[in-house]
Design brief:
The protein is of the alpha/beta class. The protein has 15 helices and twelve strands. Bound molecules: pyridoxal-5'-phosphate. The site of pyridoxal-5'-phosphate (PLP) has 17 residues, from α5 and α6.
Amino acid sequence: MKKSSKAKRWGDATLAIHAGEEKFRIGAAVGTSIARTANFTFSSTEEMKRWAEGKSAAYIYTRYGNPTLTIAEQKIAALEGAEAAVVAASGTAAVSAALLSVLHAGDEVIASRQLYGGSYRLLRDVFPRFGIGVRFVESDLAGIEKLASARTKSLYIETPTNPTLRLVDLKKAAAFAQEWGLVSIVDNTFASPVLQKPLSMGFNIVVHSASKYLAGHSDVIAGAAAGSKVLMDKVRSNIIQIGGSMDPEAAFLLIRGMKTLEIRVERQCRTAMAVAKFLEKHPKVARVHYPGLPSHPDHKLARRQMRGFGAMLAFDHKGGLAGARRFGDRIRVFLLAASLGGVESLAILPIYTSHYNMSPAELRAASVEPGTVRVSVGLEDPEDLIEDLRQALA
Ligand SMILES: Cc1ncc(COP(=O)(O)O)c(C=O)c1O
């Protein structure tokens, strides 16, 4: 398609604005239109027949596809440098559809232990019920070769990890997956394609909670997967069959958000660095987890594989759980809220949110302490954010 070959030469900011738009422009409208419809008319019974035979790519029913969803998919594919992308009703729908497109009963997946709590619980509680085994590895991949066997079919990781921002070496992980013939899947939510493009480092599938940086305004639940056309056809088929399709209204919000993705992430990264430096010097803070700080164990790796250090960070309050709760109850500019990646700065206690329902051993393995606070840095004035942290920690 003329548009996509042109799009390939563009930078991320241009792609996020223009990719996918041209074909579906209604009249001369600059703004993206929403195909607010559940179904589409066939032009004839002949077209109906061709669709049934797999010879027509016509839209028929929004769960199967819709022009507004296609625009979002083309933007995400362009940003991730993928042949194709599929959007889903949530990040979790995208994660499960990607894994289910690869795994069958009797198979095993190796997954990094440090994952978003929901993804961890999906692997720990749901997949084993269907005969899919899960082997967890630490984010440094130590001893991973001992976990692989003929049953292993996929490697699933997240980098940076939620909530303590550890990194997985993407090139090393992709090389391991290639050696064992595994389909490698990475959750790129925390970095966004602006900061990291795992497919260019050898990964097969990228998944996103698009509810976060991609949409960027805390007003929509959305997910996406990107990769080769062959793999995305499988993911799409799972989404259609299980029923995790995105709504066109959500696709519109995602598209609208993505148009400012690059500039948001750039500014958020700058502010996050200022916030991390402030927290690192604060007497009530035991430790700051931010890959942009030289004190972070994966700082060198972050410099190698990321274009910026991101806008997520965590810190351990010296006062433990009581200190973290006092902090949480006092913040005014930061909102005490789950999720991340929006324009509003947020703080949460992972033990009560992303990492609820985990044993002390599981929390230790994820480096989550009772006094850990996770912070998502938004787009407010950096001075206002730092002042808010100062008063809430005082
Ligand atoms: C890293 C990561 N992946 C996946 C998800 C799940 O996405 P969703 O809430 O859109 O289903 C989240 C949600 O917080 C997340 O933080």
